[in-house]
Design goal:
There is one protein chain. The chain is about 20% helix and about 40% strand. The longest helix has 14 residues. The strands form two sheets. Strands 7-6-5-4-8 form a five-stranded antiparallel β-sheet. The protein has a three-stranded antiparallel β-sheet with strand order 1-2-3, with no helix packed on it. The protein is an alpha+beta fold and about 130 residues long.
């Protein structure tokens, strides 16, 4: 075990780097690689030219997107969330005053009930599969 690895010996794969150096932390690198592999084609929305884009394509009001599902899990070390390889179809809309990022509302209909959420930074999307 080298000096860098021993400094990270208390780091956990589900927690931030204990010494605050995630770029050299084996646990943080492994967790990041695991998330990237699980995420696959899930991407954040990008903002440019006063509009949002997903994978280089513009998003318009009423556009259907697939929002990546997350799940809260518990173990002996506490609570954490895990990203899942599946998602739920949402409708992208704009509502109310403010900047574009503040106005985005995602709509989903679950068994006749309409739910909404503001766009949050952790959310990842992909284009729905064509059926």
């Amino acid at each position: 075990m080298n000096w860098t690895t021993s400094k990270h010996s208390l780091c956990s794969r589900d927690e931030p780097c204990v010494i605050g150096q995630p770029k050299t932390c084996p646990a943080a690198l492994a967790a990041s690689a695991r998330l990237d592999a699980l995420a696959g084609s899930w991407l954040p929305l990008t903002f440019k030219e006063d509009r949002h884009f997903l994978d280089g394509e513009p998003i318009h009001c009423g556009t259907a997107l697939e929002l990546q599902a997350i799940e809260y899990r518990y173990d002996d070390y506490g609570e954490y969330h895990a990203v899942l390889p599946r998602g739920i179809r949402v409708r992208y809309e704009l509502d109310g005053p403010g900047s574009l990022a503040q106005r985005v509302v995602l709509h989903v209909n679950v068994e006749g009930h309409e739910f909404t959420s503001r766009l949050l930074g952790w959310m990842r999307f992909r284009w729905p599969k064509r059926r």
